[in-house]
Amino acid sequence: MNWQPELDELRRREAFAHQMGGEERVKRQRDGGRLTVRERIDALLDRDSFHEVGAIAGRATYDERNELADLVPSNCVFGRGTVNGRPVVVVGDDFTVRGGSADASIREKPQMAEEMAAAFRLPIIRVIEGSGGGGSVKTIETKGRSNLPGEVGSGAYFQITTENMEVVPVVALGLGSVAGLGSARLAASHYSVMTRSSAMFVAGPPVVARIGQDLSKQELGGADIQTRAGGVDDAVDTEEEAFERARRFLSYLPSSVYDVPPIEPSNDDPNRRDESLMKVIPRDRRKVYRMRPIIETLVDRGTFFEMGKNFGRSVITGLARLDGRPVAVMASDPYHYAGAWTADACQKVVRFCDLAETFHLPVFYLLDCPGFLVGLEAEKSAVIRHGVRAMAAMNQCKVPWCTIIVRNAFGVAGAVHKPAARFTMRYAWLSAFWGSLPLEGGIEAAYRADIDAADDPAAKLREIEDRLNKLRSPFRLAETFGVEEIIDPRDTRKLLCEFARLSDPLRTPGMARFGMRP
User: What are the angstrom distances between the C-alpha of 518 and each of 138, 186, 246, 486?
Assistant: First the structure.
C-alpha cells in the first residue's frame, strides 16, 4: 500500500487549476491577443524555473458522493522562479477567472507573494490584468454583504506592498485592462510597463460614464495618457517586449537593499574617446542638440535603459553601466523647454533620486538646465513647490555623485546640480555656461537706464552683452576654483568610468535612511 491514490488526486486537482477559467475563456483571452497568466510566467522566467505555490486553491464543487467534480482555481498564480539565474517572486492575475476580480480571489495569495519577497529579500514581479483582486459589485451578492475598504485584514496587504519598495526591486506589468486595486499595484513599483493595447484607470469607462464622461478604454487610460502623466513608466507593443524590459531592469539592481548592484564584465574600453563630442554642442546657445546620443556614447555600449521617457520630458532618467558597473543616469533634454525643470520633471527627479538611494546606485548627471520653467502655466503647476522637493531629494542623496556641466547652469534649478554639503565630483565641458540667471531678459532690466539713454539702444544692448559674456567665461570662475575642472569632452567616458570604479567600496548594503514611497 502506498500513497498513489492521493498523488493521483493531487495531479487531478492540478490539472483543473491549469485549465484556468476554462477552454472558452482561455480562447477569448488568446483571441484578444493576450497570453494567459501561465504563458506569461513561463515567458518571463528562465525555462522550467517556476515553482508554484497554492496551485490547487480555489472554488471546488462536489457530487452527491462528495467526490470532487470541478475546481475553479483562484485568479492569482504565484511562486518562485529565476530571471537570468537570479531568484525572484512572480505573482500574476488570471483574467480568465472572473476577470481578476474579488469574487474569484483568495486574498492571502497575493499577500503571501509580497511576504515571500520580503522574507527572502527577493525582487517581485507583478503581472497585472483586471482589478488585481479588487472589488466587484457582484461581491455584494456572493458574500451577502458589502466590503468596507480597508476592513480588518486587508490593511496588511497595502502595508507590505508599500514596505517592499524600501527593500526589494518591484516590477509591475500592465497587460490588459487594469483598474482599481490593480492600478494601485501597477503604480506602486520601482518600474512599470504596459502594452499599448492595454489601459489603466482608477475606474473604467462604465463607471466614469455615470459622471458624464463617455470614453473608450484607450481614451480614458491608454498608454499615451498614462506614460505622459507618469502613472506608468513605459509602454511597449507586445507582451514579450514587456517581459524583456522587466528582465533588463532587474539586471541593474541588487536582489535587495542588503546587497549591492551586480558588476558584469565589459568589453567596452573605459578609455574610449569619441571625436563627435568636440562638436556635438552648438556654439549658438539658442540651438538645441540631442542628449541621448551623448549618453549612449559615454556609457558602455548598448547598456542605457531609459525610464519614463514620456513624462517630465525636460529631464532624462535611466540606468546604464560604466566599465560593467550599474549606475543611475540623469540628463537634461534641451529639446523640451530648453532643459528647464517643469513640475513633472521635478517629480521625476524625486523618484529617480529615491531609486538610486534605495539600491546604492552611483549617479552621474549631464547638466544643461536654464532653471525652473517660468510663466503662468509654470506657476499654476506649483513648479516651485515640486522644485524644492526635488532639491531636497537630491540633497538627501548619499550615494556617490558626479556632475558634468554640458552647457547651461542657471537659477535655482541649475544650482542644485549636485548634493549639497558633501564631496561630489564635478566637471565642466568647454561649452559650459552659467550664472544666477540668463543674460537674455536680465540685461534689459539691470541696464535699462543705459540702454534708454544710448543713441542706438540695440547696439548698446549688444555691447553690454559682449562685455558680460567675456566676464562670465567658465575660465574666469576656474581661476578662483569656483569650478574644479574644465575638461576635454572626449575624456568624459574615461573620467566617468573612474568615478564608477572609485564608487565600488562606497556601495554600502543596507536600508536607506528613509523608505521609498510609490
Answer: 30, 10, 18, 38
Are 355 and 499 contained in the same domain? yes
Q: Which residue stretches of 45-154 are H helix?
A: 108-120, 139-143
Cα separation, 319 vs 307, whole angstroms? 8
CA distance 48 to 53: 15
Question: Is residue 69, in this structure, part of any structural domain at all?
Answer: no
Give the C-alpha separation, 425 to 194, whole Å.
37
| Per-position b or e across 221-249, b if 16+ CB within 10 A of its CB | bbbebbbeebbbbbbbeebeebbebbbeb
Q: Retrieve residue 481's grid coordinates.
A: 576654483
- Render pLDDT for 322-353 as a digit per residue (tens, 0 to 9): 999 999 999 999 999 999 999 999 999 999 99
Phi-psi region of 481 (alpha: psi -120 to 50; beta: other; left: phi over 0): left
- How far apart CA 178 and CA 186 sit, in angstroms, is 8
DSSP 204: -
Check whether 402 has a pLDDT greater than 60.
yes
Domain count along the chain: 3
